[in-house]
Specification:
17 strands; Alpha-Beta Plaits; alpha+beta
Length: 454
């Protein structure tokens, strides 16, 4: 194969890693600059039975955007963002566009693209759709799937198809999973087709948002506050994020000491205010006092302050990525969990997870994340291959407990290559065979993203 492909080692090395800690060097790299070029590469690959793994900004934490076989198809150059349709509240984008830039384009005309992966300034919309990404505001707005109206997809044969979400309120034709084929591709991690254009739904931009960092001396009190916030009849939070003591240490360094030293747990919340700031703060303070927190909360009011809060939050995964990368040569890396449980069982799940770690003698992980959805992340750092095996063993034990609580092994980052060994823990043989059948029907040669999910 020669069309638009590079086999130069330096080019291939530039695409060998994502945020998972894995390193896989592809055989070829293709960097198309148009949809027609994507189609051409896919058709040639199908003819030669060469595999294709699609990649955007390679912020995947599961190894989904890297490969050591066939073609790594980088879609970063397909980054066009149209002017929003203000009346229809939609925007057309290409897959290489950064989520943060899409949000700014929408905000310029008073509209909001609601999904907010933490790495929105580094992640592409194609990747966000491919893994059905979510983030802090998923608590209110849901994951990416809810905000995708239409897709153009290049199939494994090279055929370009267009799919549009149905607006029907009632439909009894055929099996339910066939009603909206667009949903086959959202969250499919590049295994069923390659997204080359998307139409996204937008919402009115909130008039006023305030954020609060609520500080606690005990983790148990912080987790009680999470549940109290979730069940409050007077507050409508749009995000509820949890940070344990280790996460706070990182956040404290990133905030130049803004977080006081006696805080050992923190819950960050945001609310879109319909009335005045004082009334909103009063409601929050009443809830804080009811739980028994005695530390002064930090208030983030205004766009600049909200961006600062986001930067502090993002410092945690960024720092953990850096720590993991330092042990690459010794066979170590960062290990990040993505499990979730029904929110009422979050305190029990975290306690169980900590207990399982304690029994192994390894260092406790940093725990932070989307507590409002019962979805924390455990971030471990394995210093060598032996410690990596120990950590993965304790993670599997944790996942078995999580599933017994009615949870999931992966809530927002997908399965990719790293978590596919845990897929059978959650899905039965019938579910897996149905997915395998869909994969075989849409990609009969098995050339799309081999190793992802299945």
């Amino acid at each position: 194969m020669s069309i638009g492909l590079s086999s130069d080692r330096s080019v291939r090395d530039a695409y060998e890693a994502d945020a998972s800690g894995l390193h896989l060097v592809p055989d070829f790299v293709a960097r198309p600059e148009s949809v027609d070029e994507v189609i051409e590469v896919v058709r040639r690959a199908a003819s030669d039975r060469t595999s294709i793994t699609c990649a955007g900004a390679q912020t995947s934490t599961t190894g989904a955007s890297i490969t050591d076989e066939g073609i790594l198809l980088s879609i970063r150059s397909l980054d066009r963002i149209s002017s929003p349709d203000e009346k229809a509240r939609t925007i057309m984008v290409e897959p290489g566009a950064l989520v943060g830039q899409i949000k700014r384009t929408a905000a310029a005309v008073g509209l909001l693209f609601a999904p907010d992966p933490t790495s929105e300034e580094e992640s592409t919309i194609g990747g966000a759709i491919a893994c059905n990404a979510s983030g802090a505001r998923t608590f209110k707005y849901g994951a990416t799937r809810r905000h995708v109206r239409a897709l153009k997809v290049v199939m494994a044969s090279g055929e370009l198809i267009e799919l549009r979400r149905s607006d029907l309120e009632k439909n009894t034709v055929g099996y339910a999973f066939a009603h909206d084929p667009i949903d086959w591709f959202i969250g499919s991690e590049g295994t069923l087709g390659i997204i080359v254009e998307a139409e996204l739904s937008l919402l009115p931009l909130p008039h006023h948002v305030v954020g609060l960092a609520v500080l606690f001396r005990a983790e148990s009190d912080a987790l009680k506050f999470v549940i109290a916030t979730r069940e409050s009849s007077t507050i409508a939070a749009r995000c509820i994020e949890y940070f344990d003591g280790s996460a706070i240490e990182i956040a404290r360094a990133a905030s130049a000491g803004l977080i006081p030293p006696d805080a050992t747990a923190m819950v960050y919340v945001e609310e879109e205010i319909a009335d005045d700031l004082d009334s909103a703060l009063t409601r929050w303070l009443e809830l804080i006092e009811a739980v028994g927190a005695d530390l002064e909360p930090l208030v983030f009011d205004g766009e600049a302050r909200l961006r600062e809060a986001r930067r502090i939050r993002h410092s945690i995964p960024a720092t953990m990525n850096e720590r993991g990368n330092t042990f690459r040569n010794s066979g170590g890396r960062k290990v990040s969990t993505d499990w979730a449980v029904p929110y009422r069982r979050l305190p029990e799940a975290i306690e169980t997870a900590r207990s399982l770690v304690s029994k192994t003698g390894i260092e406790q992980p940093v725990i932070y994340g989307h507590a409002g959805n019962g979805h924390p992340h455990q971030n471990f750092v394995a210093r060598d291959a032996r410690e990596l095996a120990t950590i993965e063993g304790v993670v599997e034990k944790t996942l078995r407990c999580v599933l017994a609580m009615g949870g999931t092994v992966a809530a927002e980052h997908g399965i990719g290559k790293i978590k596919r060994k845990w897929l059978p823990l959650q899905m039965n043989a019938l579910q897996i065979s149905m997915m395998t059948a869909a994969k075989r029907e849409l990609d009969p040669l098995g050339i799309l993203a081999p190793g992802n999910i299945l």
